[in-house]
């Protein structure tokens, strides 16, 4: 009889431990599985603000705005601080990674703070005709601030091509790949502290 009780006790404890362990693998479908911030990259000047939105996707593939409920943080509070998605540029220039976390998932965005507001963007090279046989072309983006100084924005802007049948472009790096003869517009866009976008475009022909 004692042996039977002992065996039962061991099995009960084993089942409890198994359930505790399995609990880590069973996540509520309402819990977030991914998180993204928008805009992904923005530029502003000292003392200005940028508004970010946090969007989470749950286990049922439903998306929800979690801007007000996520836990926000900044990698460099002297450059930019954040509260509930509102980023305030500090007195120091530079870059900061803004993070929002909820349900164990995190989304990030990059904020670049400059001494003067961004005025315009220029895309290089300015060549408008390319041979299909060339294969690829690296484009760069240079920002001009209101005080006349410039900043490399190549890896901060969002790149796009109006005709991916003619050329595709890596949205983060600006490397274009020629697909077929035709025309397309290459665009470089970045959000600013004034809640607007500064955009540059160049029309190219591939032949």
Q: Can you put this structure into words, describing what you see?
A:
This protein is mainly β and 207 residues long. Strands 2, 6, 9, 10, 12, 16, 19 and 20 form an 8-stranded mixed β-sheet that branches. It has a 3-stranded antiparallel β-sheet with strand order 1-4-5, with no helix packed on it. A 3-stranded antiparallel β-sheet has the order 3-8-7, with no helix packed on it. It has one helix at 2-22; strands at residues 32-38, 41-45, 49-51, 53-58, 63-65, 71-74, 80-83, 86-89, 94-102, 105-114, 118-124, 129-130, 136-138, 140-145, 150-152, 158-161, 167-169, 175-178, 182-192, 197-206. It is flat and about 50 Å long. It has 2 domains: 32-114, Immunoglobulin-like (Sandwich); 118-206, Immunoglobulin-like, CATH 2.60.40.1080. Mean pLDDT is 88; it is low at 14-26. Strand 4 (53-58) and strand 5 (63-65) form a beta hairpin. The chain has 1 helix and 20 strands.
CATH class of the largest domain: Mainly Beta
Q: Mean of residue pLDDT?
A: 88
Radius of gyration: 25 Å
Shape: flat
Question: Secondary-structure element order, as H and E?
Answer: HEEEEEEEEEEEEEEEEEEEE
Count of folded domains: 2
Amino-to-carboxy terminus distance? 89 Å
CATH topology of the largest domain: Immunoglobulin-like
- Going by helix content, strand content and strand pairing, the class is mainly beta
Spans of 5+ residues with little confidence (pLDDT < 50)?
Answer: 14-26
Give the biggest sheet.
8 strands, mixed
Number of DSSP E strands:
20
Question: Roughly what percent helix?
Answer: 10-25%
The number of helices is 1
Instruction: Provide the CATH architecture of the largest domain.
Output: Sandwich
- Strand proportion, as a percent range, falls in over 45%
Oligomer: single chain
